[in-house]
């Protein structure tokens, strides 16, 4: 971690001097006011979070940057999204993946979080020359459907809620599972990863069983899932993670032969 | 839906040319940055949400605008409240109803959400010449009380919590049920509607049984409630609605003879 | 409550004329737009909240200002934190206690809430001449550890989650319970108080049993806890408090001989 970058503007100025413009350094995300008002917190962030958690091998820095971004979108922390988007891009998340993450989280955390995220990171995309035509369009070729899994999901939701809200049942099928989840711009494992991160951050453990299983079906390892919980404790708060731990435990145990 | 209006400022400029200044068009609420950063999301919003969900007959556009506004107040999405207040007014929600919704949600989602909402929509009221004296005052004549229902509610809350927090028990009675809920500026059905929307958006399904029953006692139909769940999935996120669906199912079934 | 102060700027101007610059008056926290858009809410705030709840003897004004601040940090209501920090300082909360509250809530509600709080109140600290060297540093002498309680806590968490997320288990022990909770800049009773307030405000009643018991072990009385619930109903919304009441009831009853 070569140097501390304290703001997007400072980073932009430095970009005239040397590449890469944004060091892949989570330190770049901590506002200077923290050291003024809560020096102890600045020290904890430096030690336990940036030197500690971010450096643990159990989850790749690229994945950490992606789930952090997803968490902040979920929490509507628009003021820090630009610097975290820059961090994610420097850590290897592609512009297409950030764009798809925002689209995914529109459905899984509410449209307003996604529109605020789009507004917050538009300047980062503009500065890096990322144009709409570089991003996944509305109608890409779709990934193949796991028809058996989808039939089972649909049967459950139909059986439970067809008489409660036919609109939800239809939109869940047509918009989410036959379309959104099959978009190729974000790998299924990563789409699941940001969705589970969002459920943890939003305090929705009851909705996590289905999606954590799906994430692991899509390739997320138990070690990575455990490390994500440790990482998110810092960004979503310990209580959110302690509400998610029993669900993760149950999922892990049920998958163990 | 005659044309796309992308911002309040643009709408103001257009108001010199043609009335109505604000078309009743939910498209007006989507920031332009979405198409720049997440073109797929812009397409989903256009198709599934604006052409799809908003056009479903199961819930009136006026009700959709009102519950969307309530959801955004609950989520503290202050930056989009002005354009959604304008949309609601164009869709037939009265200034008095918006004012009462903010007051209701101060109690049901926290004072800070309501004060931020007041700050966000004050310019809309000013632009349209809506003055404080046009709005419901502090001490209107109150709607009659359903004394049997209130006695049952009070007995339950007293029995459970009189020794835990006498302050909550007293304020719930004096401020909320003997006063706030009896204010005539927002019809009981609509007061319940925005309250249920707020409970869904805030992830409080445990508090929903009482208020959804009250909403239906006050005239909300099962079809409208189901359509509201479908509508709110877009604005509060699918997981919030999936946590609310079992509660709605239970309420609907318990009311079916 | 000598006079109404409507903004930080107005208060600053008045400071040239008379001390104290900030009256200890919660009225100072209500934005003027409320009276414009929701006059009924302005009247409720004046009557039920400022004249009513804040004046109840069951919880000291200093404690009310502290838990209000904690609630607003938890809800990411950054725009009102400056005026509430000023109110808290005027009510007897020390700069060190505000600083430690922000650090505590970084862990219990997520880093971004704490960094936004630091940014929001940095001008208040600057205006009052509070410098980083006046605040608790990174490595103060620590309060003694209750070794039996810590051993029991660690055994439970290890037993439940060591195989789920070893990182969470380690950080919870090393960073939180062996370090953060032992920092002397915020008394254990107050550290627990802001933590319980945060759990209520964030809708995490499941995590409240441990922390409310800890708060009462640390000196919070049942009457104070009940009054805090009544106070927080206004700032976090009634439903959050009604989800917390059964947990408080259970804790109170289990502690009654």
TrEMBL record, chains A, B, C:
Swiss-Prot/TrEMBL keywords: Signal
Carboxymuconolactone decarboxylase-like domain span: 44-121, 168-249
Keyword Lipid metabolism: no
Signal peptide extent: 1-23
InterPro entries, per the entry: 4CMD/NDH-1_regulator, AhpD-like, CMD-like
Pfam families in alphabetical order: CMD
The protein's name in its UniProt record: 4-carboxymuconolactone decarboxylase
Molecular-function GO term, any one: peroxiredoxin activity
Recorded superkingdom: Bacteria
Organism: Pseudooceanicola albus
Lineage of producing organism: Bacteria, Pseudomonadati, Pseudomonadota, Alphaproteobacteria, Rhodobacterales
């Amino acid at each position: 971690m070569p140097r501390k970058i304290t703001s997007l503007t400072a980073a932009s100025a430095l970009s005239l001097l040397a590449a890469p413009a944004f060091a892949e350094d989570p330190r770049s995300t901590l506002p200077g006011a923290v050291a003024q008002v809560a020096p102890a917190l600045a020290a904890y962030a430096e030690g336990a979070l940036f030197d500690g958690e971010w450096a643990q091998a159990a989850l790749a820095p690229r994945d950490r940057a992606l789930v952090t971004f997803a968490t902040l979108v979920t929490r509507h922390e628009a003021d820090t999204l630009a610097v975290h988007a820059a961090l994610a891009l420097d850590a290897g998340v592609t512009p297409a993946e950030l764009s798809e993450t925002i689209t995914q989280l529109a459905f899984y955390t509410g449209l307003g979080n996604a529109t605020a995220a789009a507004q917050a990171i538009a300047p980062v995309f503009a500065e890096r020359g990322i144009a709409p035509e570089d991003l996944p369009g509305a109608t890409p070729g779709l990934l193949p459907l796991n028809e058996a899994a989808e039939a089972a999901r649909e049967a459950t939701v139909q059986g439970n809620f067809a008489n409660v809200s036919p609109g939800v049942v239809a939109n869940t099928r047509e918009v989410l599972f036959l379309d959104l989840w099959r978009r190729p711009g974000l790998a299924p494992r990563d789409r699941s990863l940001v969705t589970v991160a969002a459920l943890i951050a939003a305090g929705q453990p009851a909705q996590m069983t289905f999606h954590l299983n799906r994430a692991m079906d899509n390739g997320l390892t138990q070690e990575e899932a455990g490390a994500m919980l440790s990482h998110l404790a810092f960004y979503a708060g310990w209580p959110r993670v302690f509400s998610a731990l029993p669900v993760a435990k149950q999922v892990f145990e049920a998958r163990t032969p």
